[in-house]
Target: Adenylosuccinate synthetase
Amino acid sequence: MANVVVVGAQWGDEGKGKVVDIYTEFADDVVRYQGGNNAGHTLVVGEEKVVLHLIPSGVLHAGKRCIIGNGVVLDPEVFIREITNLKAAGRLQDDSCLLLSESLHVIMPYHKRIDIAREAQSGDKKIGTTGRGIGPTYEDKIGRRGIRLMDLINKDQFARKLKEQLPEKNFILEKMLGESPLTFEEIFEQYNGYADILRRYVADTTLVLHRDVREGKKILFEGAQGTMLDVDHGTYPFVTSSSTCAGGACTGTGVSPRDIHEIIGISKAYITRVGSGPFPTELLDATGEQLRATGHEFGATTGRPRRCGWFDALVAKYAVRVNGLTGIALTKLDVLDEFATIRVCTAYSCNGEILDELPSNLDLFEKCRPVYEELPGWQTDISKIRNFADLPENARNYVKRLEQLSGCPIVMVSVGPRRDETIILHNPFD
Model:
């Protein structure tokens, strides 16, 4: 038995979808544990490209059970659209293979309206939210004002809770944000229609997972975003609104920490970020543009161009520390194929001092400048290589150097976007 958590080790967009897709072959359950449709996984299987925002990547494998845990916030419209698209493509023919936690919180229209209006009024202090209503939904969850899926599928309970919440939300929209109010009737009718579709997927998923753990089934936990966007451990306030780190797999599903055996951090061979906030190795030059173009660095959810930079070993070490990583899956090594010289940030220079650990103070972090080590590139196409020993010597040395700097073994190397363009050095399910 092995239960494995897959977590982003940078600022998100590291290629978790592909890694989860590969590991799903060895798992019985694939569980999404936090975030919402502000995240996107792009998967390439053969010639088919699939983008998922809510449903776990394991849905592309027949016979696997996919679960969306209580730590996720759900936009019913987006979820239903994903189901419709998957079924149209011949997937998800058995509805029993997809379960929704009855305890997860539901994104309401006022959450999205508030999210967008707040960001518009933030001026130069914008967080970089996707405007999907994720943050306001988590606010209501923590404030004990949220509407959960179990409420939505109970018509009377939903009506009562919506009537309780709407006056306050309309006050915020009208008086504070200058927006038009929402009507009870319109929301109630729309979301009752969603409830009729969602009801068939609802379950006590904590109990389901508990039983599967006891039966020795293999469970793969799938996170969204990345370590540096964790609401507690990321570059606050330029973070998401949930626990993206490995600990979120337990609180977001109800599975005990004792039942987690491996934690795999996903990291690009360079680094990217979407939205505002500090980014020491960001490249605002032709090199950054080359990384963006070659790596197709545009958000799967928003289409926004990602900020690109060289690999940051301090971020990697931090991710190893706060997640307890047992392995790193290194993605997009092939994006570096054309570079004659590749840089790696091994320390920061700040206020005349050299730092070898990530500072927790945001003001200090914003002043940090990278200290680079230069490594020779390999300048050859590696996308057809399937064994680590067959990689060019400089590519092998680069991977080994990142392993040394992060203090964690690299267990997978991705050399292209497709499922088969992968070198597996160690399978955490073994």
Summary: DSSP finds 13 helices and 20 strands in the chain.
